[in-house]
Amino acid sequence: MIIPSKDFKPDKKAKFFEVTIDEDFCKGCSICTDFCPKSVFESSDRINPRGYYQPIIKAEEKCSGCKLCELLCPELAIVIEEKQQ
Fold this sequence. Notes:
By secondary structure, the chain is an alpha+beta fold. It has one domain: Alpha-Beta Plaits, CATH 3.30.70. 12% of the residues lie in helices and 16% in strands. The chain is built from two helices and four strands, in the order E-H-E-E-H-E. It has helices at 31-35, 68-72, and strands at residues 17-21, 41-42, 56-57, 78-82. The strands form two sheets. The chain has a two-stranded antiparallel sheet. A two-stranded antiparallel sheet has the order 2-3. The longest helix has 5 residues, at 31-35. The protein is elongated, with a radius of gyration of 17 Å. The protein starts with 16 loop residues before the first strand and ends with a strand.
């Protein structure tokens, strides 16, 4: 068993994530707005090319990268990627 030294400090750099909604796939189901624990998304009156009300990204800086929205999106319209700093 490996025991870390007393001086060990985990890397706690802040991570930032890029949130993308593919408006060609989004069907306006609002799952992302309902289930996001950080309230990154917001309902809007913007209509996408398919005729659905598309959510908007209102607070991308709050995204923790949990990818819950990406996993729950039935149309695979949401992509979460870590930003390189």
